Amino acid sequence: LKGNPLYWLAPESLSEYKFSHKSDVWSFGILLHELFSFCDKNYSPKKLYLQKFEHNMDGLSIPMFLHNILYENWRLPAPPTCPLKVYSLMRKCW
What residue ranges do the domains of the chain occupy? Predict the structure, then answer.
């Protein structure tokens, strides 16, 4: 990975610096998202999170904002050509 993997981290990793097999499963779901969007930068986790961040900043840092929206159950949308079964698997990872 180039740069900070912030956008691939599970909520508990963002807030409590906890890393486990569960946070690895979360990251696997993010990896699936990237694969099924064919690594198109328009659908990258970073871009999608930052688009959401632009509209709801409320003075929060990016890690705190990510933590909040993820605990509120906001999730990445399905990539445009992603089969429903694969997106369902991603959601189970998250």
Answer: 10-93
Sign of the CA dihedral running 38, 41, 15, 88: negative
pLDDT score for 57: 61
pTM over 0.90: no
User: Tokens for 89?
Assistant: 């698997």
Specify the residue for token string 């486990």: 20
Q: Which residues contact 80 (CB under 8 A, 6 or more apart)?
A: 37, 43
Total Cβ atoms within 10 A of residue 71: 12
**Assigned superfamily of 10-93:** Transferase(Phosphotransferase) domain 1 (1.10.510.10)
CA 87 – CA 55 distance, rounded (Å): 25
Per-residue pLDDT of 45-79, as tens digits, reads: 888 888 877 766 666 787 888 888 888 888 999 99
**Do the beta carbons of residue 77 and residue 51 sit within 8 Å?**
no
